[in-house]
Amino acid sequence: MQALSRPLIVGVTGIAGQALAERLTVRGGHVLGLSRSSTSSVPEVEALHADLTDAAQLREVIAGTRPTSVFVTAWSRQETEQENIRVNGGMVRDVLAAAGAEGTVQHVALMTGLKHYLGPFEAYGQGDMPETPFVETEDRLDYPNFYYAQEDELFAAAAEHRFSWSVHRAHTVVGYAVGNAMNIASTLAAYAALCRETGRPFTFPGSEQQWNGVTDMSDAGQVAEHMIWATDSPSAHDQALNIVNGDVFRWRWMWPRLAELLGVEAEGFDGTVRPLEDQAGGMAELWTRIAERENLRETDLSRVASFWHTDGDLGRDIECLTDMSRSRLAGFTGYVRTLDAFATVFDRLAADRIVPHVGT
């Protein structure tokens, strides 16, 4: 039985899960999509609904589905890192216990991120961190980290149920999703709409390091292709793999180009950090009025913009740059220009009436 003939996507409506659904259905397999309550917009996906923190419900819902591969892209943000570890490590454990019990799983691909190298939210960028570009062979940091807990649950399940595995460490993800807690593209598109409405400039919110330094990002489609490739490629099995677009850029170059795409006037770094949470504070009602006037699908600004997360990415005082040699040497050739990734998502958000069209 081929590993991709009955894939199960955990978190199918998320930013990476959506991209996986679109690509896996094209391949012709029977795609299963697991989420708490929402259903994938890809009609070919068979919807499964369960609370990922409820082990009994997961066993009941997954029983009889006989998945051949599992793509784990879901996580749930908690108040403390210890709670992140308990909840998110537990989700991986319980999902893989239920799927593994079917006896059909051949490979599991787990999506994590660069907090593997940077530390969790509570200790982000603190202490001794590895040199950039980040490589997969770096030792774990001393801080508790839910990514480490997820990996450990994956390794234990792989040993018990005898499947291969891969871990996919993405940088900031550019992709299409609604209600996602970490969506820089929709955040910036919504922020630009608010700037157009109020006549304000599109002001860079971050640090001098991010404005001037070299960085990279991960397109959701690139992440999805990477996970599919690893599932289908023995050369990638039982390894952790960084996944970014392949290009590098400086925000001082990127920011005015994003502003042009979004129909706003760019304002760069002026020596101070100007967080989006401060700039857009108190604008929820304004967004609701814009959404009602433009007949948008989402009148709740918090469903479109995650200002806190974009502030975290753009406000960092540390260099974030990723090495992809391990994947390249194993045969992965995917490449996406980050500016094109933003442009594609901006167009889709406007076409689907998540944000206003530029000029309205």
Q: Can you put this structure into words, describing what you see?
A:
With 360 residues, this protein is of the alpha/beta class. It contains 14 helices and 13 strands. The protein has helices at 15-26, 55-62, 81-100, 115-118, 146-161, 184-198, 208-212, 220-232, 251-262, 276-279, 284-294, 307-314, 325-330, 338-351; strands at residues 7-10, 32-35, 46-49, 69-72, 107-113, 164-170, 173-174, 202-203, 214-215, 218-219, 239-243, 249-250, 266-267. It has a seven-stranded parallel sheet, sandwiched between helices. Strands 7-10 form a two-stranded parallel ribbon. Helix 1 packs across helix 8 (220-232) and helix 3 (81-100) packs parallel to helix 5 (146-161). The chain is globular, with a radius of gyration of 20 Å. It is an enzyme of class 1 (oxidoreductase). Keywords: Oxidoreductase. This is SDR family oxidoreductase. Residues 8-237 form the NAD-dependent epimerase/dehydratase domain.
Describe the structure in brief.
The chain is an alpha/beta fold.
Question: Which overall shape is indicated by the principal axes computed on the Cα atoms?
Answer: globular
Q: What average pLDDT do the residues reach?
A: 95
The strand line-up of the biggest sheet is 3-2-1-4-5-6-11
Please identify the structural class as seen in this structure: alpha/beta
- Count of separate DSSP helical elements: 14
